[in-house]
Each structure stands twice: as C-alpha cells, then as structure tokens.
Write a structure and sequence with these properties.
There is one protein chain. By secondary structure, this protein is α/β, with parallel strands linked by helices. It has a single domain (about 5-215), classed as Spore Coat Polysaccharide Biosynthesis Protein SpsA, Chain A (Alpha-Beta Complex), CATH 3.90.550.10. The protein is about 40% helix and about 15% strand. It has helices spanning about 25-45, 60-70, 80-95, 115-120, 160-170, 190-200, 210-215, and strands spanning about 5-10, 50-55, 70-75, 100-105, 130-135, 140-145, 175. The protein has a 7-stranded mixed β-sheet, sandwiched between helices. β1, α1 (about 25-45) and β2 (about 50-55) form a beta-alpha-beta unit. α1 runs antiparallel to α7 (about 210-215). The N and C termini lie far apart (about 50 Å). About 40% of the residues are buried.
C-alpha cells in the first residue's frame, strides 16, 4: 500500500456548532456534516492514486457511510481532538505499510479528485511535508506526509506555521500547495456562504450532496 488518506471526523451531533450563530439548528448541522463527508468520500473514490481511506470517528453514522464508500473506519476517543484522531489514522496507515499519508479535512466537499491525483503524482522518496492551507492562508486543510510519521500533526488556529516549523525541525523538505478545491472548509457562517457560492458555480452535471443540503436549508 502506498498512499493512505486519513479523515478525522467529529461525531455528527458535535459538528459545526459555530454555525448555530448562523441560524442552523442541530438537525441541519448534522445534515450538512453528513453531506460534506459524503462528497469527500465520493471524490476520494474517484482519485486514481489513493490506495486506501481511513475514517477516524466515533459516530456510527459516519462509520456506516465510510464503509459504504469502501473506506476503513476506526474509533477515535471522544476526549481527544482533531490532531489526536489524525495521529490514530497515521498509526493505522503505518501498520498497513503505507509510504505516504494524506491527512484531509472532512468538511471540504468541493474536493476535486483530479487535484488530488496531481498532488499525489510523482511522490518523493525522501522526507517531505506538503501543507495545503485554507483560504485564509493560516490553517491547514490537508497535510501530505512522507513518510507518514515524519511529524505529528498539530491542527487548529495557526496550524500552517506550526506544521512548517515541525517539518523543518524534522529535517524534511517543506512545500506549500494551494489546491483550489481544498481551500474551502466550513467553520463559520462566512465560510458556508463562500462554499455555497463556489458549489453553485460548479457545473450542474457535478453532483454534490452538500449543494443539495444547502438548497434545502435556503428554502422558505
């Protein structure tokens, strides 16, 4: 196995709580989180250079969804955060013999499988950390690690800078890759509006569960 994608996924009932300030009720936030994860899994299934996907979650619905798309699912610890869940996935990937681990946010439903394949085409043999930032340029929406244990992930506010520092301290090459479809994650109401506009601009032949969820949320 060469490339394993690791998706840490919060329990759906805890997902996107900040969107309550944007008027989204718990059921609506759950529907949104489900739609976003579905779109990400759908895109990863179409990516040629992804060998396996591991979803780290404690949510039964997310686990069922993951297995439905041919992904592996392992349990997280409810007391742990995003970085710890990602590390669980990395540990699993190493046990399976992966040479590369791509840590990916589960709330990036605009993900383009062609961009993922471009990122994974011609992977290095030496130590490298590729950081894919969010649209603000300070966070990290994806992290490509070669080898998978070259650094321990440190997500959260200002994570791009931390990941750069960790990579240099480990003696790894550092590369920043701005993938347009991975710039758009959802934490705030403003993020949601930007994502909705981006999905609306995509060709109608492209099927996005998230776009359908957002359309329902906007009905009177």
């Amino acid at each position: 196995m060469s490339v394993v994608v690791v998706l840490p996924v919060k329990r759906f009932h805890d997902a996107k709580v900040r969107l309550a300030d944007h008027g989204l009720r718990p059921g609506e936030r759950r529907a949104l989180a489900t739609g976003m994860l579905t779109d990400v899994l759908e895109s990863l299934r179409k990516a040629e250079y992804v060998d396996d996907v591991i979803v780290v979650t404690g949510d039964p619905g997310a686990e069922v969804l993951a297995r439905g798309y041919g992904a592996q699912a392992i349990a997280d610890d409810e007391a742990e955060g995003h970085s710890e869940a990602a590390q669980r996935g990395i540990d699993w990937a190493i046990e399976q013999g992966a040479f590369h681990a791509l840590l990916l946010a589960g709330d990036t439903p605009a993900l383009d499988p062609a961009e993922i394949d471009d990122l994974l085409d011609g992977l290095p043999e030496g130590a490298e950390v590729v950081i894919i930032p969010d649209r603000h340029g300070t966070g990290t929406n994806a992290l490509l690690l070669t080898p998978p244990d070259i650094i321990r992930p440190s997500f959260g506010e200002g994570s791009r800078g931390r990941h750069e520092e960790l990579a240099r301290a480990a003696g790894a090459a550092v590369r920043i890759a701005e993938l347009p479809s991975l710039l758009l994650d959802v934490d705030t109401g403003d993020d949601l509006e930007v994502l909705a506009a981006a999905l609306q601009d995509r060709p109608k032949r492209d099927s996005f569960y998230t776009r359908e969820v957002l359309a329902r949320l906007r009905r009177p």
